[in-house]
Design brief:
By secondary structure, the protein is of the alpha+beta class. The protein is built from 6 helices and 8 strands; from the N terminus they run ββααβββααβαββα. It has an 8-stranded mixed beta sheet with strand order 1-2-3-4-5-6-8-7, with helices on both faces. A hairpin with a 5-residue loop joins strand 1 and strand 2. It starts with 11 loop residues before the first strand and ends in an 11-residue tail after the last helix. It comes from Paraburkholderia pallida. This is N-acetyltransferase.
Length: about 260
Amino acid sequence: MALNTLKRPLKSLPTFGSQDSRTGSCLINIRQMASADVRYWNRHVQPLIKALYDEWPASVPVDWLHPAGIDLGAIRADVGWDWERIFLLAKCHNYLRPLSSAREQAHAWCLELSDTNGGIPIGLLTAVPAYGSPVQGDRSKMGFVWYLADAPAEFYVTMRLDPVAGVARALVDTAIQMRLDLDDDAAVFLHADPKGGRKLIEFYGERCGMTRIRNPKRYISPCRRPMPGEYFYMDDQAGRRFCATHDDRRLVLES
């Protein structure tokens, strides 16, 4: 995974207190993921997700706006994820492409809370800067946001820290920055896992401003066949607009 640093990474994110009011900002560091980050996540973060959250019921269409008995706040797509497997999958992607450029390799990133002793992982991401576009009629390549996860609110409670806001958006920003560094283009796409249900549909469509692909290509690689409505994308202009909303966070805060 050849890209070690980003040219314009985010350096801070807002924090919130117990009453959901903004309390300030925290310093963050975005760096390449290490095996120690994966072990930490599987030991301290993933058990909370598995114990306290549920996947979207398979019997309920994700496009239902107000499904009875479902609390969107209690839904997460990553309940059953294993980041050791995800990290290995990124490495296997690269192993099977020994002659590929950094653009076509998978890169793994860790977003850590850096103003604590040693740094604490609060977000993980794998992404490929240049992957076949899922949009009908588009023969270009886009950045593929493969897997991303942010620590749940309960993790900050156990660590006695104010919750950090905007981690998932910061991970999407990281994938775009990586593509900008390697290809000078901000177009990206991702798969909204149906296990995340309506919550993911709203997050990517409304909070990230991505366009939902209702009629994708039949396949974009031998192992990836897009399903209607499950993929979202931003073109270059949309990706740059998204990143511009974070530009005031790309400078280190003064003490």
